[in-house]
Write a structure and sequence with these properties.
alpha+beta; four-stranded antiparallel β-sheet
Length: about 650
């Protein structure tokens, strides 16, 4: 998000507004503003004018779950403002509420003409990205219907139907056409000397297929209260570290963000559940890998998200082969989308399986959940799904035929299908990209851990000793192969990946820390990797860079080739602790906590890779990061697990 956009999030709904609370619908250098529900923009314009002019922000929107600002007419020192507008906004489940309080600053009766111009373009989020793609949308129709209390915008494309309803209290004096498709709600407010008048506007967004009877709260304060209740549910019972208040604050802020990022999903038996969305603004939806890691970080403190995520992912597990969605039997879904373009097959993400690591992570989280909670009922319920996931790893995933989990670039979807999924993220030190199949190092660690944890379930819950022994043998063989094929003796470090011919990609990357977390490396190798990750070319002072500085492929503002990712560092900290490198784990934790403290205790999706030695004032923001991201929100909890309150 850019500086001029402020994000309000509640479940599957978010709004991005400007400093004065307006929505222009115009893309700036970052993301577009608007009200979004289920991948569609339900408000593309929301602009306030008073006496025909746009007021300026005397006190702009600040960070928070409610957008509050103070507006006055533009003028000079010699002409004090004739009025002041106090503006307050919040989002709810498929809703947006705004209260306007207009106060006259004059000693005589005054009439103020206030207007709110609204429009809804129903653009799919994929249309609004900066990838220069266009999508043909034939046969669509739009409608605008004036209501007693406001206006309704409609959108239809075949059987696809969406609507946005704007209502006001008191009713507008008129709803005017603007010549652009937008509608202008207008009021003439008669104010007593120094008098005040209040307006409330409510927006209900109805995405395609949503037949719920939504009740919009009467005020932003009521919506804020709903979110606070949800946040309290997440925070309740969590023992924050008393000796490290900055970590405690980061944990509390992260839990609050996790509460806001819960989106509805359907479980294995059709039950309605909530799972952590990946992040806002671009990924307010279920991403398998992200939801699994988020729930894993939260597991020691909140086990319910893990149970919900496992049930939802089991419900969406692939049972057939489909080339367009990269589905194969047993594979865990990577991304689920609900928008128009996904519905019509114009993007492959309705259910998209382009991930090499979501499937092993599903097994890792299932094993960790049972170990943490003792809830063997879930392990029994998910036994067929766990076995199918193992079957995918051994068969389609490549463990049996290639010895490793393998992925190939998907022309219609993702070029890379591990966690570093941007084009060019998997490369050699000089930036050369591999051709053909790729065997990413981190995914092999996840597979090793998945096999071992599932073997425990097979032995202790499913009473299948033969299957347990088979999985343990497969895990041991994988470990031996990996240390033979991936270890680069000249660097005393593992390769980022192998190409299709088995040649190592020699970039020095943070993925090696994931191998510590999964326990794939022998102790000697693991200790060497852990200490190497804390050397200055890797460790920026705020965290471990995704790629060590000094390599030709390194760039501090690259998405995956030199930036610092909080969730990546959380896994590294857990891995360092696993190998007994507790001082190094504390160093990583302190860097991340200091970064969070410098940004209001909230960790963004990713920060730039610039070193703390050259920019000590705080971490440099990555320009296109999700402001709220579930893995980053849960990362402080993982740090607490790794190092305690030290």
């Amino acid at each position: 998000m850019t500086d001029r956009h402020h994000l309000l999030v509640y479940g599957g709904t978010f709004a991005a507004v400007g400093d004065g609370g307006d929505i222009s619908g115009v893309r700036s250098t970052g993301s577009p503003d608007g009200l979004f529900v289920r991948d569609a923009r339900h408000l593309s314009r929301w602009q306030l004018t008073v006496d025909g002019a746009v007021p300026e922000a005397l006190s702009p929107v600040a960070e928070g779950d409610t957008a509050r600002c103070v507006l006055v007419p533009r003028g000079g020192r010699s002409e004090p403002p004739a009025y002041t507008v106090f503006r307050e906004q919040a989002v709810g489940d498929g809703s947006f509420v705004e209260c306007l309080r207009v106060t006259s600053n004059r000693p005589v009766p005054t009439t103020i003409h206030l207007a709110v111009t609204a429009d809804a373009d129903f653009a799919d989020q994929f249309e609004l990205r900066s990838d220069h793609r266009t999508y043909v949308k034939s046969g669509l129709t739009r409608s605008r219907r004036v209501l007693d209390h406001g206006v309704e915008f409609g959108y239809r494309r075949g059987a696809w139907k969406s609507s946005t309803t704007v209502s006001a209290d008191p009713d507008p004096d008129a709803v005017e056409e603007t010549g652009t498709g937008a509608r202008r709600l207008v009021w003439a407010l008669d104010l007593e000397p120094h008098g005040t008048s209040e307006l409330t506007l409510r927006v209900i967004a109805r995405p395609h297929g949503d037949r719920r009877a939504l009740r919009v709260p009467r005020s932003p304060a009521a919506l804020a209260g709903q979110l606070l209740e949800r946040e309290n549910e997440f925070v309740e019972g969590v023992a924050f570290p008393t000796g490290w208040p900055e970590l405690a604050a980061a944990c509390a802020r992260g839990l609050g963000d996790l509460a806001a990022l819960q989106v509805p999903a359907t479980g294995l038996d059709g039950e309605e559940l909530r799972v952590p969305a990946a992040g806002a603004p671009w990924f307010l939806t279920l991403l398998g890998r992200d939801a699994l890691l988020t729930s894993l970080f939260a597991l020691p403190y909140h086990p319910r998200p893990a149970a919900a995520v496992l049930s939802v992912l089991a419900a969406t597990q692939a049972t057939t082969t489909d080339a367009e969605s990269v589905a194969q039997p047993g594979k865990i879904v990577h991304e689920v989308r609900h928008g128009e373009l996904a519905h019509f097959g114009q993007v492959p993400y309705a259910r998209y399986y382009g991930s090499v690591d979501a499937t092993p992570l599903f097994l890792v989280v299932l094993g960790a959940y049972v170990e943490q909670t003792g809830d063997i009922a879930l392990a029994r319920r998910l036994e067929p799904h766990a076995r199918a996931a193992v079957g995918w790893m051994l068969d389609h995933g490549g463990l049996t035929s290639r010895g490793y989990l393998v992925y190939r670039a998907d022309r219609g979807g993702l070029a890379n299908q591990n966690w570093k999924d941007s084009p060019g993220a998997i490369c050699s030190a000089d930036g050369t990209r591999p051709g053909g199949p790729v065997m990413a190092a981190g995914a092999q660690g996840y597979a090793y851990d998945a096999l071992r944890r599932t073997a425990v379930l097979a032995r202790t819950v499913w009473a299948d000793e033969t299957y347990a022994a088979l999985l343990e043998q497969a895990a041991g063989d994988l470990r031996d192969r990996f240390q033979r094929d991936f270890w680069m003796r000249e660097h005393d470090f593992p390769a980022l990946a192998l190409d299709g011919d088995g040649n190592p990609l020699d970039a020095l990357a943070s993925d090696a820390g994931h191998l510590l977390w999964s326990g794939l490396l022998d102790k000697e190798y693991g200790e060497a990797v852990g200490r190497r990750l804390l050397e200055p070319d890797f460790f920026s002072g705020w965290g471990v860079r995704t790629l060590a500085a000094g390599q030709a492929a390194y760039h501090p503002l690259s998405y995956h080739r030199g930036s610092v990712w909080p969730h990546d560092n959380a896994l590294i900290a857990l891995g360092l602790a696993r190998y007994g490198l507790h001082d190094e784990a504390r160093t990583v934790a302190h860097g991340l906590v200091d970064a969070a403290t410098a940004t209001g205790h909230r960790l963004p999706e990713v920060i730039a890779g610039y070193g703390r030695d050259t920019h000590p004032a705080g971490p440099v923001p990555y320009p296109h990061a999700c402001v709220r991201e579930s893995r980053s929100a849960a990362a402080p909890l993982a740090l607490l697990t790794a190092v305690g309150g030290a």
